[in-house]
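Pilot study result, target chain (262 residues):
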Amino acid sequence: MPLPTNQEPSPDYMVLPQAVNQYLPPRLPEDPGLRAAGEAWLARIEAALAAYTPEGPETVLDLRAATPEAVKFLNETLGSGEVSALAFGTPDLQIEETVFTGLWRVRGEGVDYLEIGDVPSVLKTRAKAGLPPMPELETIPDDVINAPHLLAEIYARVRAFAETGTAHNFNLDLLPLTDADLGWLVKTLGEGPVVIVSSGYGACRIRSTHLGNAWWVQFSNASNALILNSIDISTIPSVACAAADDIADSAKRVHAVRSVYL
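Predicted structure:
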């Protein structure tokens, strides 16, 4: 039945997520041989997670020295977490957080290792870029009005970050930017060699730019609608990083797995 002319249509509400991600203990392989091959690696992983400190050196466990049985065991046991990344370069690298927060699997041609930390160090080193010159005024299209002023502020914040380590975030949704402004800004900042995706409630996509320590960060809700569009000035946006407390919890979880299953 059509609505009366004097009645307003009901409002649309944001779709709520249908599931919530939570930690579930991994199911270890039933094969006793695989368990025997992987037990020593779980012990090394637990020790590395327990010893982690934010100020300490990176800890890397090279899986190229592992037997095929141990690798198969780790593939089945470590699983996939909420954060994954691609780091383009030589070689291209595929990076995935395991079910244990702060334990990362890094793979590529001739590369296969686990790293313990807030993020794998290769994401920081690959994303580093210089400070290209600002575009010449005569090259800026006439319909691009506010983006050049924002770009100048981004450059200033990048310089300040290099000097003081002070991070900054630009919420583009709150700035008077037209489609032409945004298109020009995307083209000018360009695409860097690192892409990070974090899932959870909706998703977060992070992309490095040609400007060192300047990241494009976009959040989408459970309906895949863009809800936040921003530029983050930092070494790595914090949303992609594992917290020290979570890494300590991962050490306890690995210990629990070893105690119960092995």
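One observation from the pilot: The beta strands are 59-62, 83-87, 93-97, 103-108, 111-116, 168-171, 194-200, 202-208, 214-220, 226-233. A full batch analysis is planned for the follow-on phase.
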